[in-house]
Amino acid sequence: MTRFVWSEEYDLGIDIIDHQHQRIVGYINQIYDISASNPHVQSSGAATDTGTDIRSVLASLVDYTLSHFAFEESLLEEAGYPELAEHQLVHRQFSNLIESLKLRSEQGEEVSQKLARLLQQWLIQHIMTEDKGYAELVKQRLLGIEPDRHRHWVTQAVSRYFQ
Ligand SMILES: [Fe+2]
């Protein structure tokens, strides 16, 4: 595998979500970098620096991803997204996966590039299917500030020019 390079095709056009996704990519790349530079080191046992680093990145990844999912789900709820329950289920499955990987790493299992690849594949697939599935609706319902801005501009312009 290679490092996860962000591409425009992964953008949903919802800045706050795109930034959160890129931060998750950053954690996945950290796991990749650490395991790539120490391919045969165990993730715990003799408490190597590498093992400690990977465990700490995994903990951050789990933490941040859970917060991101919670944020995204509340955004979808706010937008009245009809497939929220299905989306939540997919999030839960991934949460369980990374939680169990974190646990296995804490118990001394080697965390390899295989893990980084799995996370990378999952995230790309999720963004390109389920997340792309809600993007237009959220943009229309929550980010469609143009109508209000336009109305405001019209009101101001009318009072300015037609007194
Ligand atoms: Fe999602």
In a few lines, what is going on in this structure?
Helices cover 74% and strands 0% of the residues.
Descriptive labels:
163 residues, binds fe (ii) ion
List the helices and strands and how they pair.
Layout lengths: L14 H23 L11 H30 L5 H23 L6 H29 L4 H16 L2
The protein binds fe (ii) ion.
Fe (ii) ion binds next to α3 and α4.
If you had to describe this structure to a student in words, what would you say it looks like?
The protein has helices spanning 15-37, 49-78, 84-106, 113-141, 146-161. With 163 residues, the protein is an all-alpha fold. It has one domain: Up-down Bundle (Four Helix Bundle (Hemerythrin (Met), subunit A)). The termini are far apart. Bound molecules: fe (ii) ion.
Ranges where pLDDT stays below 50 over 5 or more residues in a row are 42-47
SSE order: HHHHH
Q: What percentage of residues falls in helices of 4 or more residues?
A: over 70%
> How many H/I helical runs?
5
Query: What is the residue-mean pLDDT, rounded to a whole number?
Result: 81
Largest sheet: none
The CATH homologous superfamily corresponds to Hemerythrin-like
The count of strands amounts to 0
Rg, nearest Å:
21 Å
Class from secondary-structure proportions: mainly alpha
Ligand inventory reads:
fe (ii) ion
CATH topology: Four Helix Bundle (Hemerythrin (Met), subunit A)
Can you tell me the overall shape? elongated
Distance between the termini: 66 Å
